[in-house]
Design a protein that fits this description.
Blueprint lengths: L1 E5 L3 H11 L6 E6 L2 H11 L3 E5 L7 H7 L6 E6 L5 H6 L4 E4 L4 H24 L1 H5 L7 E6 L2 E6 L5 E5 L2 E5 L6 E2 L3 H7 L5 E3 L4 E4 L3 E6 L5 E5 L4 E4 L1 H11 L2
Parallel strand pairs: 1-2, 1-3, 3-4, 4-5
Antiparallel strand pairs: 6-7, 8-9, 8-12, 9-10, 11-12, 13-14, 14-15
Organism: Persicitalea jodogahamensis
Pfam families: LytTR, Response_reg
Keywords: DNA-binding, Phosphoprotein
């Protein structure tokens, strides 16, 4: 598992590397002292897992994750503060380790990562045809949220919104939650019709009503129904290419 360690303290990085030595499935491919370094290494090395400090000079760990375009690696936060736990799991963190890192807690975190990956691989192996099939506007999907169920034409879903370990689907006047990650849904959706606007949102391009310039070279898209979604600067370049003649 290709792993990147991100922490502004060199001694903390060295200690974590030492603690990770017994875990042969963890391949440390690089380390970074700040978010700027980390973004470059994430693009270059394509890690599958981040050990990420929260408080760093410049952008903090949450701001770093927000800056990652497309699929983000799995994340285990490492921090000296316990104030950020709830927010960490809003970012789909697999675990949250307090410094100094306890070897038993680290063991639990690694086990959680392995179980998560095994579950994903088993799900793919059980239904390879279904898992690999791209879904388009005319496909119908079954949605269950608590006691409520829907059988919905995918083209009616105008927005997919990440909510921690869940995704909120927006269609008609309904907003059910499904236990999926936004990344896993993105793999299943036809890229000709569904666009990853930012880390938290995928929009249905057929529902775009208005496009406006936004801060720092980004765009603000208004969907039919009134949802307003910001497209990040880097994604705005892709969006313009996709929507142009």
């Amino acid at each position: 598992m290709r792993t990147l360690i991100i922490d502004d303290e060199r001694l903390a990085r060295n200690e974590l590397k030492r603690l990770l030595e017994p875990y042969h499935k963890i391949e440390i491919v690089g380390e970074a002292a700040n978010a700027e370094e980390a973004l470059g290494l994430i693009t270059e090395l394509q890690p599958e897992l981040l050990f990420l400090d929260i408080q760093m000079p410049g952008k903090n760990g949450f701001e770093l994750l927000t800056s990652i375009e497309g699929k983000a690696p799995d994340v285990i936060f490492t921090t000296a503060y316990d104030d950020y736990a709830i927010k960490a799991f809003e970012f789909n963190a697999l675990d949250y380790l307090l410094k100094p890192i306890d070897s038993e807690r680290l063991k639990d975190a690694i086990q959680r990562v392995e179980e998560d990956r095994e579950h994903h691989e088993e799900s793919t192996a059980e239904t390879p045809e279904r898992a690999s099939r791209v879904l388009g506007q005319n496909d119908k999907v079954f949605i269950k949220d608590g006691e409520k169920c829907w059988f919905v034409l995918l083209g009616k879903i105008r927005l997919f919104e990440s909510m921690g370990n869940y995704v909120r689907l927006h269609f008609d006047d309904q907003k059910p939650l499904v236990l999926k990650s936004l990344n896993s849904l993105e793999d299943r959706l036809d890229p000709e019709n569904y666009f990853r606007a930012n880390r938290k949102h995928i929009i249905n391009l057929q529902w775009v009503e208005k496009i406006e310039p936004w801060f720092s070279g980004g765009l603000l898209v208004t969907l039919q129904g009134g949802d307003r979604i910001e497209i990040s600067r880097r994604q705005a370049i892709r969006f313009k290419d996709l929507m142009s003649l």
